[in-house]
Each structure stands twice: as C-alpha cells, then as structure tokens.
Here is the input.
Amino acid sequence: MSTVPTLARSYEALRPKVLQRLLELRSTLDPSLGRLDDATARAQIGAVLDHLGNFIATGDLGLHRAFLHTFLAMRAAEAQSPASVLAMLVAIGDTAAQVAQEEAAGTPDGAELTLLLTRVTASTARGVNDLIAEELGRRVAQRTELTKRAREGKR
Amino acid sequence: MTQQGSPIRIAGDTHVGKVRTMNEDALILEPRLGLYAVLDGMGGANAGDVASQLARDAIRDFVLQRRAALAPKALLEAALVAGSTAVFTAAQQHRERHGMGTTAVVCLVVDPKHVVIAHVGDSRAYLLREGRLQTLTRDHTIVEDLVERGLLAPEEAERHPYKNVLSRNLGARAEARVDLLELELRPGDRVLLCSDGLYGYASAEAIQYLLGSGDAPEHVTRDLIEIALRGGGGDNVSALVIEAPAAAPSSTQVVRTSGAVTWWQHRQRFLQVASDGGLARNPIVRGLPAQEAIELVALSLCQAIYHDLEKSTGVNVWTFAQNLAAGWFERGGDWNAVRGIVDILGGAARAVVDDIRARDAKLGFLLDVAVSRALIVVELALGGLLAERLRQIDSDLIELHGAALDTVEHDTLETVEPLESGERSIERPGERPSERSIERPGERPSERSIDRFIDRPTIPFLRPERPVTSSGESSEVLGAIAKAITIARGRLSPRAELVAQILVALETVATDSGGNFAAAVLAARELYGVRSVDNAGVMPLFDAFDKARIVAASSVHQVRASPAIRVRVLRALSLAHQRLVAAATGLVLEAVVPFGERLREVQVVTGELREAVARAEQRRADLERKFATIVDPSLPWGARGSTEW
Here is the structure.
C-alpha cells in the first residue's frame, strides 16, 4: 500500500513550521527571497509550499510542470532571473526536507518524508531547467531568424 | 571475552604473561549483574590463583544475593569485605595457603551513565574521557602511603625497593578497608580495569593511545595485553574495558564516513548501469571509445559524489556538471544531450543507492538523500549555465532587434502613421500588446495588411508603433515617463531619499538615448556610492529598488495618457529597473571579489596546516613502529625509560 497519503498528511502537519522557518531564514537561504517584503515572501513561499503538498499527494508531473511554468513566468515578470528562481525553489524544498528531518527524526515517516521532499526538489530543479532550456531554444531560434533577416536586409 | 547485548560494551581478557607459569589473575564479567572486576592473587604454593578465585566467587555471589537490599556503594563495599573474609577464612583453614591474598578492582554498572568502582590493592581503574587518560584509583602500597603522607617524593617512589609491597589486600584480614568511587559516565567514556601486569609493562601513553584508538573494546583489550607482553610480560596481564554508549553519530557523520566509502565500493555497479543506459552513445561523448567515455564521464561523477559525500559539500559535483555542460554548449551542443547524459548518470546513482538500501536500509536511506542532493547540485549548476546563456542570447536579440529596427524604420517609416483621432489600439484577451493592431474607421480587419516581420518582434518593449525618437521611444512616451516619475516622487515620504534617487535614475535610464547599459551602470555607481558589503550592506539598496519599482509602476496609472502609452511607459520603466538592478548587482559582485581572494588565501593556509598535521600523524605512526621493534622486550616499561614515546 502506498504511503504517499500518509506522507502528504505528515507534510501538511509540518507545513506551518516550514513556512515559519523559511520566513525567518529567507535572507540567508536565497538572495531573491531575502529581497521580498514579509507579505510578498509569505505569498510566494506559501504558493510553493501549497503546490509541494499537492504534488506529494498526487504525484502529477504534468501539474508540477504547469506550476513551475507559471511560477517562472511570474517571477520573470518581476525581473527575477531563471537561475535565482531555481535557487529559490531549491532553497524552499531543501528547507522543507530539513524541517522534516528535524521534526520527525527517527520515525519511519519522518525519514520517508525527508527523502520524498529531497526527490521532489530534485524533480523541481530538473523541471525548471527543462523549461529554461525550452525558452532558450525558442530564443536561439529567434536569434537565428533575426540574424538571417538582418543579413537579408543588408543585401 | 566480550559481553554483547548491553548498551555498554565490555570486553576483558587475561594472559599468563611471558615469565610466570600460572595465571593468578581472575576476572568477573557478569553483564546481568552489571558487575566487572580484575583480581590479582598473590601467595606461594599455588595460593595466588586460589585467593583471586575465592574472592571473585565471593564477590559475585554476594552481589547476586544482596543487590536488591543494598545501595550500590554499600553493596560493593560489603561484597569486597565478603571476598576478603572468604580468602582469609580459607587461608586460616589451609596452612599452606597462609598469607595468600588478592587485589581487586571492581566496577558495578548501576545504569549506562552511572558506575561505582571499589578497589583494594594495586590493581587500577583508568578513565579515558575525550582522549585524556586519568587514573581513578590510588595504589594501596606502602610506598604510595608514604608519598601520600609526604614522607616520600613521587620520583623516589618509582625507585623504591618496596614499591610493589601492598599495604592493603583482600585476605590479609577478615575485614578490608575498601576505597569507593562513584562516577557519572559521559558518552564514549572508557573505563579500564587492569592488573599491575599491564601498567607495569605498558606505558601510560601506550594505554592512552590504545584506549583512545576508537577500536572495539575486544580489540583494545587484545592490543593492551599484546603491548604488555611486548613490554616484557613479566607478570600476569589482565585488562577489562567498559565503554559507555557513544553519542549517536549524526546523519552527516554517517554519510561522511561509511556512506562515502560504501558509495565508492559500488563504483563498478555505477559504471555498469551508466554503460547499460547508453552513456557511450550520448552525443557529448561521441567519438570516444566506449570505455573511455564511461571513465571520463561516469567515473568522474562517481568520484565527485564520493568526495562531496566525504566532505559534506557539493563543490565537486557542481564543477563536474559545469565542465560537462559548458564544454558541450561551447561546441554548439544542445540541451537534450545534456539532459540525456544527466538522466543516465542519475539513474545509475539511484541503482547504486537501491543496492545499498537492500543491504543496509539505514545507510541506504541516508545515501539516498545525499545522492538526491548531489543530483540537485547538478541541476543547479546546469541551471546557472542555462540562465547565463539565456542572458547572452537576450543581449544578442536586443542588439539584433535594434539593427532590424533601424532598417525597418528607414524602409517603412512612411507607412507607419501616427494614430489619428478615431483610431484605437485593439486589445484582445490573451494577445500580447505587441501583437495588437490598429483599427481604422471604415476599414475591415481583413483589409489590413499582413503583419510584417517587425510586427512580431522578439523583444516586445522595443517594438515601435509610432514614429520614434533616437532613444527608441516617442516624445509622448518620454513625457509620460517624466510625469510618472514626478508623480512617484511626490508620493514618497521625505525620508525615502534612496528611493527618490532611484526614481531619478530610473527616469535617466528609461529615457537614455544610447539604449545600452552604460546609463544603468553610471546610475548604479552613483547609487552604490560609498556603500560596501561590510558596513551598511546592500540590502537597503535592493529594498529601495523594489519600493521604487512598485511606486513607479503604480504612478504610471495616474498619468493622463492613452492605455497604449501607459503600457509603453510601464515597459520602459520595467526595462530600466532590470538594467539598474543588474548593474548594481554587478557592482556588488565586484565588491566581494577581494573577499573571495582572501578566502582562497585562507584555504591555502588551511591546506598547509592539514598537511602539517598529516606529517605529524605519520611521524607518530613511525615512532610507534620504531618503538615496537627496538625495545628490549625482557625489560618492563618502567625499567627501561621509554624515551621513544
């Protein structure tokens, strides 16, 4: 029998502590988090933590990717670079895993949740990179097109 | 002899030595009673061994029978008295055993953190705590008594002819005067009970070294006896080691030690899975012989993970990923190949972890987490490279688009007419502003000309819909920018000077005719001013950047202008903000360079110190080997002057 519903419940129980830890440490965890005011940081981090809970419960990679896509776009609109968004998401996942390890140390659920959160973070990092690479591919194509047209224009 | 199954680890052993023909020492190893002892019998005509065994049995029986009735100290004291009585009585009953006796050093483990030690005679108890050895007992010899009373100097005691003559033992009388000691054990403490056959033939330094070696108690006991034998073995040798439970090693410690080693032991499996996954067919290593490709990529990552596990860092994995992908991208390679190779390596890592988990669930779990983190580090390194490439491509696109604009402006300026009264910009849901078209009265959409290339630009904020000035923005937009900034400044409190300065800078950058980063860099330098990372910090500046962005953006909506103009103003200010922040970040990075250099210097010094420590360790090991081979084993430790130590 899958333990994921149990782990999802464990995660939900830990979520307020994770949020609190992230709000306290956000300046040291990641510069992009550190720059945010309390309300914005709470909203952004809360959104990620909410989604992590959903992802743990459903394991739906499609939804995960969709979330990452939106999150990247929104942060890009706020002039955050993709690298800093990636670092921020990893910092959030890492802190969640750390809190799980501390709070539930020694229990099988605690150990499994720590591992699951670490793997989710790895999956997040992978997904973000794939999205950045897709965007890069599009822009490289645009550059090629523009270069070509610039040459044609000169002729 | 080793006792298992207790949180406290105990091992004890005894050896007849190299000179004696009979072992008169005796041990008590009773985990169920928590009772441990070394006894050293004495007396001619086979009486020594009888004395130690009689006392041993009497002490054990007494504790067994009375442990519920007496407190630990009283119990132990009474037990030793019972032992003395037993020996004394037997000596009285057998003329040939008259005068026999025994020493005893006894340890009662009350609980894993609490022991009571009792002793009579010159058998000793030592405590090794945090690497330091201390003697817990005082020998009951005539010479020691003289020293204690100040009648003999300690240095004279070593040479005194009666230094081995006991002032107390079990069996000399029916009663016995027992010295007692209560001890709180700390995690990792080791207590050694031993007869004079050990400390008489092994130096205190040797005992300290072996007790502190971290080896299991049974190995320590064996080595202690061995070194006493090498030191001469002129007496029976007995040693009993009691080890308090060590503090549980942290997950990090486990991974750094056994985790790293276990990982490295499975490297062949890692290489095999990577090979089976088709690593050698990946475009990144195309052209290399399969084996070479596997070693170049898979073995390198395997090594990097091993070193990172050992040192709890991610720097080796990071460097590996950077080198792998940067080289490939420089050769014009695509992302898919990188993703493919990283996935193969990730799969190999997980296969290894699964194998380890099947054998050792706990270690496997810790490694699973650690290796997953290593894979996150790989992604972070790759993400950094991708983002950097994205930034470069954006820069190229801006340049190319600028060039395209000039051409288009020149060719089509006459065809792009200003909006006239009655015209409106059409806004459709989901449509980018840059894609909006101009609707003219009486004109059907189908009649509009097909958008040219320049009407589908890559960089929306550079798209001209109006005749442009040399700065790329219309005078209307420039005017609106100025108005927005004026409104924004008016909304600030007088104390928000830094935000006000940033607003001025935003206007300068947004209306800069150069269209490059120069204005942003100049403005950032002015803002950065005398700030440095070690006093005021940079966070107030970046906080002010954010506030300026928010106040500027909200002020744009108060400008009296068409929505299209407001959109342009917003874009211009947004771009200016990005440039300003990027330039300020560059300045911050420049400012921290000296600290990075200082850090590298410190790393060099640390490396030299590590090497010095390693050399000292090597020298100590050499001296130990030398010591083991050059000494005259027929002499006891105390008699030959152990200068080699």
User: Anything to note?
Assistant: The radius of gyration of chain A is 19 Å. Residues 4-154 of chain A form one domain. Residues 23 and 38 of chain A are 8 Å apart (CA to CA).
